Structure formats: C-alpha cells, structure tokens
Amino acid sequence: MRFQLLDIVFNPPHPVTGEAVPPSDRLERVVQHAVLAEELGFDSFAVGERHAGDVLSSAPTVILGAVAQATHRILLSTGVTVLSLLDPIRVAEDLATVDQLSRGRLEITIGKGNEDLQYPLLGLDITKQYEYLEENYELLRLLLSQEDVTWEGRHRHRLEHATTLPRPFAGPFRIWHGSATSRFAVELAAKHGDPVITANALQPRENYQVLLEHYREQYAAHGHDARYGFVGSGSGGLFLADTTEQAVEEYRPLYEAQVASMRRRGYDPATHVGKALSFETIEEAVERGPALVGSPERVAEKILDYHRSFGHVLQSVSVNHLLPPAQQEDVLRRFAQEVIPVVQAEVTTDLWTTADERRAKGFTALVPATAGSASR
After folding, report:
1. Cα–Cα distance, 279 to 248 (Å, whole number)
2. What residues make up the domain containing 164?
3. Can you tell me the distance from the alpha carbon of 120 to that of 143, in angstroms, rounded to the nearest whole number?
4. Number of domains in the chain
5. Model confidence over 116-153: pLDDT tens digits?
6. What residue stretches are annotated with the Luciferase-like domain (predicted)?
7. Cβ–Cβ under 8 Å, residues 81 and 51
C-alpha cells in the first residue's frame, strides 16, 4: 500500500484555549510537514483547497510551489482541486507550473468540494456544481494533452487556438477523482479510466463502499485496463498513543470540538450527509467510523480491515493541526515507523512503481522491504 499525508490547512482557534496560530506559522508548518513526510518515507504529500471558513488553502498551487522547492523525491498532489469553481485555463497554467517546478512529481485530485459557501462567494450556482465539474474537467484534459485547442461549452466563453503555458513537465499528469457522496464523481472517473479517492472521513464505511463498487462496475463496463483502476482512501483523523484507550482519551477534546463546530454551522448527519460527522462520540468514530485513533497496532489493523472492504491501495492520513507541533511530528514518526511497515507487509501494489506507466514521470515509489499479497 502507498501512503499520503494530506493537509487541508484548517486554522480555527484552539477550541479549549482559544489560541490562534498566525497564518504565516501555520503555512510554514505545512512545508515543514512535507519535508518530514519525505524524510519518513511517505509516498505523497497533498494540499487541499477551500475558499470559505477557517481554512488557509485558498491558493494550494502557491503552497505546492513552496513544497516543490523544499522537497526532492516525494510525489505532490492536491487533496482536491475544486474544479467546479475554477477556470480550467488557470488550473492548467498553475498546475503545470508546479509540475515543472517539481520536475514531474505532480498528480492531482479533482472534485466539486465539500464547502457550500464557496459557490456564492465566487458567484456560482451550486445547483450546477456537477455541470461545472464535468465541463471544466473535459476542457482541462484537452488543455493538458493538446496545444492549439478550439473548444466550446455551456458555462464559459469559446476558446480558439488556445495553448496554455507552461506545458506539463512530461505530458499530462494523472488526474484522480475525489468521491464522497455522489455517483457522479465515480462515473466521471470510470468513463475516462481515471483512479478515485474516497473521502472516508465522516460517514460509515458502507456509504463509501457502495460508490467504490459502482466505480469498479462502470470502469469495467467502459472497457478500461484494470491495472489502472486504482482506489485511494482518506481517513477520519490520525492520532496514536501507546494504547487505544490512551489515544481515545487524549484525542477526545479535539473530536468533541469538531462535532460541536459542525453542529453550530447547522450540519446535522440526517440532513447534511457527507458534511456532518455521523458519529457523535470518539468511541463511535474509533469503533465504527474512519478515525485512525488508537495504538499503532490497532490503527494498522483498522487500515487492513478497511482495505478488505474498499480494496484501496493508497491510504491518505491527516494529523490534527491543533496538537502541539512536537506531538504532530511524533504521531507522524510513529505512523511511519510502526504502522506503515505492518500494512505494507500485507498489501502490495503496482501504484507508482515502474510497472505503473501512467505515474508522474518524476516519481517512482520506494519498494518496501516487506512483501505481501498483490492488490493491484
């Protein structure tokens, strides 16, 4: 299995102390974590994108440009490029710039985003978010793969003889599709033979599993090469301690604050599927939900358990930014040293190896010391 560290760059005040981290410090920490992830052997580092709320990831390509210059080996990604909101011309230009700066170490994930307030903020109609996503994706594919593009759609002006610069480092970089609540995203991915990443952050696993099953059915129906139908999975937060009981107690205040924050925004699990936490307590999230909170042994066991349901070969994790910086780094180190080897001993994959001919041209994953059962 491959592993990714994701930062959406949330930056609300601490729910207990009220302390706020200066934006410059928070952004600096993103780059520091990317460097640490590379040092620890993570395969990928991803930065999210949001344009509303206490979040500092409104300009992810700027952040990734800084990360590209601070790192040398690790694959770079977008936790999601909210393509429904964006001009594909600027997306192609910005991301190809990152691809060049990193010398071909870029793959991206696209989606409609999980923040409703982004649409009125940017003057867009949220009821057309899937129309925007499909049209912008079709145009982005053309712009990355071709020069002298002439194109016409429904939601933006006609293009004539358009060539975006810079061009990608070594041909179009791979595009993953983020999936959380709708069949639309997985159907779009399957239509074009692209891989998917299930959010797996807020809901019971069954809600995500049904979308992955539909993706695989549609992928096969379109006749695509099964070797490239890769699936990734997110998680509901990462926290490690010597015992699961200790981890639950230490993480409880942060989890309860997250639940309270969503409730204040009016996000109810019954009416806001995919936007509200489905698990009221940390115990529920650990026992039945996607939270990776526990001892290293328990977290490794849980990833493997979810793998049996999802068949995923990429695991994305996020460490809570409200933890003290030294504790954030300790969690990441323990995860790299005590969890990743256990999982990789059981699940192997061709993703990002020399067998994966569609991988980012500037990146090849390290071969784990252990070998287990191949899982695509």
Report:
1. 14
2. 2-374
3. 27
4. 1
5. 999 999 999 999 999 999 999 999 999 999 999 999 99
6. 1-310
7. no
